[in-house]
Write a structure and sequence with these properties.
By secondary structure, the chain is mainly beta. It has one domain: Porin (Beta Barrel). Helix content is about 5%, strand content about 55%. The protein has three helices and 21 strands. The protein has a 16-stranded antiparallel barrel. Strands 12-15-16 form a three-stranded antiparallel beta sheet. It is globular.
């Protein structure tokens, strides 16, 4: 990661003319992830492709801070996602679709930021789940990324508070506005979360509610990139992990409840168009057991098993998924990896539900295998 402490550039670009004692910093950072991916069944056929961001989404960004004195500083983040294979912008062609916010941070009271940001499930539970880390990534996501631990969507129009670390304890809250004059609750979001760390132990819990996500209010908190179109989505969960020596084990529980669900977005469903739902209620309950082991400081093995009990389209599908990864660091910023995932779904009835490992197109059957080898570079 390269850090540029250029006061003149900051003044020119961001207009941060301040007191003589103020120090301004802008950090340019990013992640590049690409490789070759095999799918046993993608829409009815096997497939080998050069895939971009199959584990971690490609991004570049800018972070900035201005010291205002007295332990207070102004902060901002602008982060853009893109497809490394063809250069296209991600997050439905948003310029800064991954993150875009500005705010104030206090050493004593925490931070308040406004803009497009991650919810508290991502912040608190994501690091305890294999898919929320570099040791599993997108392929280890729960079905449809129903709990958003893989950052399938962000919350726009949001105000977010994050506390400082009190002896290992942190808490946060977020509210995403609908921005609609005659529909305050039409496509709004709110979220809460907390975590505690003591030595090798980490525990966390979080809650997220969306009202009218994916609705006709395209300027709302979660719109074109919503995983589900539903009148209400409630997702909550808790997790724990423990590190001892070179090993780490963890367990994560999440549940997503949907009211009046009418569709799964095309990207989330792994199809060319949205997967229509019958408008009734639905739920997903996920149980994930994960672990990793550092064979050497540079070489690690990791894996997870996830069982998902769902109710969807008049059926009660049961998902079983196993994910395994080996990763080798060539340097502090560059690593190579190999990863495989297997998913089987049963009890689908006549719902049309098939296996679908997040990150590739859905299978036409009840099973799917995905394998990938790739390289990641951080700057």
């Amino acid at each position: 990661m390269k850090k540029f402490v250029l006061s003149a550039l900051s003044l020119a670009l961001f207009g941060t003319a301040g007191a003589a004692h103020a120090q301004n910093s802008v950090t340019l950072y990013g992640l590049l992830d690409t490789g070759l991916t095999y799918s046993s069944n993608s829409g009815g056929h096997s497939n080998v492709q050069q895939a971009s961001g199959i584990l971690n989404g490609n991004r570049w960004g800018l972070r900035g801070a201005e010291d205002l004195g007295g332990g207070l500083k102004a902060i901002f983040t602008l982060e853009s996602g893109f497809n490394l294979s063809n250069g296209n912008m991600g997050q439905n062609s948003r310029l800064f679709g991954r993150q875009a916010f500005v705010g104030l941070a206090s050493n004593q009271y925490g931070s308040v930021t406004l803009g497009r940001q991650y919810d508290n499930l991502v912040d608190n539970l994501g690091p305890l789940s294999l898919n929320g880390t570099q040791y599993g990534g997108t392929l280890a996501s729960h079905p449809y990324d129903n709990d958003n631990l893989n950052n399938s969507f962000r919350v726009s129009n949001s105000v977010k508070y994050q506390s400082v670390n009190y002896a290992g304890f942190q808490a946060g809250a977020m509210y995403g506005f609908s921005n609609e004059a005659d529909g305050f609750s039409d496509n709004r979001a709110y979220s809460l979360g907390a975590s505690y760390t003591f030595a090798g132990l980490k525990v966390a819990a979080a809650y997220l509610q969306l009202n009218g996500a994916g609705s006709s209010n395209s300027s709302g908190a979660v719109s074109s990139d919503a995983t589900f179109t539903a009148s209400r989505q409630r997702t909550y969960g808790a997790g724990v992990s423990y590190a001892f020596g070179p090993a780490n084990v963890g367990f994560v529980f999440t549940q997503t409840q949907l009211a009046n669900a009418t569709a799964i977005g095309a990207t989330a469903a792994g199809k060319s168009s949205a997967f229509a739902l019958n408008g009734s209620g639905a739920h997903f309950t996920n149980f994930e057991l994960n672990g990793r082991y550092a064979i050497t400081p540079a070489w690690s093995l990791s894996g997870a098993y996830t069982y998902t009990d769902a109710s969807l389209e008049g059926a009660d599908p049961k998902y079983h998924q196993v994910t395994l990864q080996t990763d080798y660091s060539l340097s502090k910023r560059t690593d190579v990896y190999a990863e495989a995932a297997y998913q089987h779904v049963g009890s689908t009835g006549n719902s049309g539900i098939t296996a679908h490992i997040v990150g590739v197109s859905a299978s036409s059957t009840d099973s799917q295998v995905v394998g990938t080898v790739g390289i990641r570079h951080r700057f």
